[in-house]
Amino acid sequence: MKKTRKTFRLLTLLLLVALAAAVLPGCAQESSDVLKVGMELAYPPFETKDTAGNPTGISVDIAKAFGESIGRTVEISNIAWDGLIPALQTGQVDMVISSMTITEERAETVDFSDPYAWAYLALLVNKESGIAEAADFNQDGMVLAAKKGTSAVTYTQNTFPLVEIRQFNDVSACVTEVSQGKADAFMYDQLSIYQNYVQYEDSTQVIYIPGQKAEGWGAAFKKGNEDLVAKMNTFIEEYRTEGGFDRLGDQYLAEEKAFFRDNNLKFFFEKP
Prior knowledge:
By secondary structure, the protein is an alpha/beta fold. About 40% of the residues lie in helices and about 20% in strands. It is built from ten helices and 14 strands. Strand 9 (about 145), helix 5 (about 150-160) and strand 10 form a beta-alpha-beta unit. The radius of gyration is 24 Å and the shape is globular. The chain starts with a helix and ends in a 10-residue tail after the last helix.
């Protein structure tokens, strides 16, 4: 009897091991089918939410198209800007696509794809600031409102060294500072500057900065994820050739695209 019971327990154990072996690979496969994408949903129309609170915008569409191209379902996580790179480093997300400028400093901690868009900086200035052109900005006493952690901070330090920089957590705070005369200018990409100018035409104006080098936006990946970076680069080239980026511009930024064209400015998805 004891021998029979012992044999039964052994058979039961072997069956459980076999079941686990069959189930675990399936779970691993299911997990690998999900592409976890991080972005800060606070920059319409690139990264934002619809009326139901769902992620929407240009970057969302790009992420979903990329996921479809490699056969993976996209899961988007809304993460504060300064938490995006840490989320990559800790494996919380597989990639970040959030209108992120490719910089040497960031490239020390993450790997970037090829640029999928290019941006230029501009100034939203208070009409009472006395700034008629970009060169007027580099004076003692001038104050820049800048979003914390953006390339505008570094650019101002290098190009307008006399300017005092005050950093804020979001764009709306920066724009409010300028519109109320608490700061002389806010520096961001040309599209955002134009969009905020439209809302505050009575108190602000747009100043373009000549002689800039285009800032490329790229998708960011954890260091060493060469396979996913290569797939993203292939996708970007094919998507551009197929007219995908042109369609996104027409869908989300038709008015802005016309403004850029009328003012001889390169649009986001045009190569420099």
